[in-house]
Give the backbone structure.
Amino acid sequence: MNPTTVAVRAGFRRGMIELRNSFTNSQDVWGYVFPTLVLLVTIFFMRGATVPGTDFSLGARTLPSVLGMGLAFGGLITLAQQLVVEREDGTLLRAKATPNGMLGYLVGKLTLMSTVALVSMLIQLVPSLFLVDGLRLTSAGAWLTLLWVAVLGLVATLPIGAVIGSLIENPRNLGLVMLPMMGLIALSGIFYPINGYPGWLQAVAQVFPIYWLGLGMRSALLPDALAAVEIDGSWRHLETLGVLGAWAVLGLVLAPVVLRRMARRESGSRVAARRERAMQQVI
Amino acid sequence: MTAVELPESAAGPHPPDEDLVLDVRDLRMRYGTVDVLHGVDLTARRGEVLALLGPNGAGKTTTIEILEGFRMRSAGDVRVLGVDPGRGDERWRARMGVVLQSWRDHGRWRVQELLAHLGDFYAPYSTDRVRRPWPVTELLDAVGLTQHARKRVSRLSGGQRRRLDVAVGIVGRPELLFLDEPTVGFDPAARREFHELVHRLADLDDTTILLTTHDLDEAEKLADRILILAGGRIIAEGTPDELSRRISGNAEIRWTRDGERFVHSATDATAFLRGLFRQYGDEVQELEVRRPSLEDAYMALVYEQESGAREGGAARVWQQGSQG
C-alpha cells in the first residue's frame, strides 16, 4: 500500500489511542470538566442579569460565546502546548526517525485536538442547558450553523496553534502567549457585549478569530432578534466566513513551512540539551 | 559531491561496493568559527559492528547525527546506505533504526501498543529480503519485555525503558542501526542479554551497527572494529586486539623471588620469561603477565592526541599509523 496512505491511517489510529489515553487520565479529565464548572458558576451568578437593551438572559448569551472561546483556546493554545511539550520529551524526534512519522504525528494531533475540542464543547453545553432558557435547540439550522462555525474555527485556529508551538522553544515561554490570549478574550465580547468599547478596541478584537467564533456560536444558538445588539445589528455570517477563512489560509500556508523548519532542527543533542535545561530549572 | 560516482574512485582506498553501508570521507563540521570535525573517514560493511569511542566533546554525537540525517554537515562525502543523508527520503529512513539517549516520550502508551503503532509505518517498505515490521510479540521477546507488554511506558524502570528504546529502534528491522550509549542504566544481566541481542542482529540479520559507548569493556565485547574519535578526527581504528597491541606493545611482568616483588616491562614477554626461568628456575613465584588492555590503549591514544594537539602534528602520526 502507498506509504502516505499508511501513515495517514496510522496517524488517525494514533489520535484515537491518544484520545483514549487522555480520557482515562484523571488529570486530563479534570482539565475537560473544570471549564464547565467555571461556566456553570458564571451563568449562575449572571442569573437575573440581562443583555443590555433587551430582556434576554445574559447567561444564555454567555453560553454560546464561551463555546466559541473554548474552540479558539483549544485550537490555539492546547495544540501549541502539546507541540512544545512533545518536542521536549522526544516524541517529535521519534516521529522524525520513523518513515513518514511526521505526517502520522500531525494527523494524530489534528484528530486528537479536533475531537477533544468538540467533546469539550458538548461537556460544556449539555449541563448548561439546565440553567439557561431561550436557546434555539430544536432548530436544525441552528445545529448546522454550529457545525460549520466549529469546523471552520478549528481549521482557522489549529494551524496557527501549530505555528505558535513550533516557534516556542522553552515550555516556560508559553506564558508569553497565554497573557495576550487572556487580553484578547477580554476584548472579544465573550462575557459581555463590546458595543460600548471605543471603536479602535472593537477593531482590534475583530482582527482575531476569538471574536468571530463567539459571534458565530451566538448566531447558531441565540434567537435571531438578539442579532440586533451585535455590532452592525447583524450576525455577519459573511464577515465571519471571511475572517476565519483568512486565518485558515494564513495558518495553512505558514504551518507547513514553520513545522518543517522546526522538525529539521530536531536532533538527539537538542532534546538532550532541553532536558538538561529543564533539570536545572527544577533544581 | 559527485566524486563517489566517478569511476576512478574505485581505485581509491574505499572502493564503492554494495556491501558498504557507511562510507564517510573527509567529513567536516563547523559551528560558526569552531571546527568540530576535521575530516573524519570511516566505513562499515554489512553486518559489521563498529564502536565509536572518544572523550566527551570529541564530536561523536555530531558525527552520528550527521549520519542519521538529523544534522547538515559542512563538507565531505557521506554515503549512508548508498544515500547522502542530507537528502535521504522516507524509503531511506525506513532502512535504518535510531536509538538515542534521553527519550521520555509516549509515557501514557502501552508498550505493545507503541511498538505496533510505530511498526505500522514500516509495513510499506517490506521487501522479500527484509520483512517489515518486526512482529510485536517476537520483538518483545527479543528485548525481554514480554511480561511488560501491557504496561504503560511511564511505569517502566530505567533499564526496561532503555530496552523499549532499543525495541523501537529495531521495529523496522533496520539494515543500519545507530545505538547511542545503549546500556546506560542496565544491570549486569540486562547488559549481557543486550549484548546477545546485538550479536544476533549483526550475525543473523546482517544488521550494521554503529554504537557509541564510554564502556570500553562493552566496546571490546561487541565491536568488530573500534574507532577512536578525539579532537574531531579518527585517531585510531582497528580490532580491540590491534588497538591494544598498537600502544608500545610492552607487557608488564610481575613476579616474586625470595619474598621480594619485581616488576618489569618488556616488548617480547615470552623471550624475557625464557631468560628469567633459565636464570632462576623454580625461584620465580606468583608470576603475572599483563598485556596492555584496550583501556590502556585508549588512554594512551587519547592522551597522545590531546598533548599532540597542543604541540601540533603528533596526532597525525597516529592517524597514519592506523591506516598503514
